[in-house]
Amino acid sequence: MKSEVKITGNRLQITRVFDAQRAAVFGWWSQAEKMQQWSGCKDATACEIEMDFRAGGSFTQKMRIADKCDFTITGTYDEIIVPERISYHVNLGGPITQVTVEFLEQGERTKVILTQDGFPDEFSRGMVTQGTQESLEKLDSILAKQYLPA
After folding, report:
1. Are 5 and 13 in contact (CB under 8 A)?
2. Which terminus of the chain has a smaller tally of CB atoms within 10 A, N or C?
3. What distance in Å separates the CA atoms of residue 39 and residue 45, rounded to the nearest whole number?
4. HSE-CB for 56 with a 13 A CA cutoff
5. Which of the pair, 38 or 66, is modelled with greater confidence?
6. Residue 25 covered by a domain
7. Is residue 90 domain-resident?
8. Looking at residue 3, what is its pLDDT?
9. Whole-angstrom Cα distance, residue 16 to residue 27?
10. Which domain holds residue 109?
11. DSSP 8-state assignment for residue 3
12. Are residues 8 and 117 in contact, defined by beta-carbon separation less than 8 angstroms?
């Protein structure tokens, strides 16, 4: 399934359904070793993540983009409800946005709704939209290989 994207003003919302149970999908967002396997745009050749996964904890994500430039984002977790929701604010190298990721159980599948608010302009929102969609594609590929139907 492709991601469904809604843009309203300075808000981005991306919805995607994964063929894996909610606890498994949540696990790929809550562990640095797993997240660095899929987070980052398709041109990211390396991704290093450090995270203190708890409310009040912080994270740093460093990416190498197409062997040309480095990009770092940092953030702080505001709320974590296992395995339902992760809320955090993220510094994208200038603008700070608020992100909420919801994990909704749908039988053996999981609907993920990522909502990001506070983009200062269309350019930054467009870059994040593309990168997030490409990241979710990578996660979908990983989950498809691990959770093959019986």
Report:
1. yes
2. C
3. 11
4. 0
5. 38
6. yes
7. yes
8. 94
9. 16
10. 4-38+79-145
11. P
12. no
Ramachandran region of residue 24, left (φ > 0), alpha (ψ -120 to 50) or beta? Answer: alpha
pLDDT above 60 (res 149): no
**Whole-number Å distance between alpha carbons of 129 and 4:** 11
Count of domains forming the chain: 1
CB burial of 34-44 (b: ≥16 within 10 Å; e: otherwise) equals ebbebbbbeeb
Token couple for 64: 């190498």
What is d(CA 99, CA 119) in angstroms, rounded to the nearest whole number? 11
Q: What is the DSSP string of 132-144?
A: HHHHHHHHHHHHH
Looking at residue 87, which CATH number applies to its domain?
3.30.530.20
- Kindly calculate the radius of gyration of the chain based on its CA atoms and give it in whole angstroms: 15
User: What is the C-alpha to C-alpha distance for residues 142 and 123, in angstroms, rounded to an integer?
Assistant: 29
94 band by pLDDT with thresholds 50, 70 and 90: confident
Does some domain include residue 58? no
Q: Which amino acid is at 25?
A: V
Could you tell me if residue 128 is inside a domain?
yes
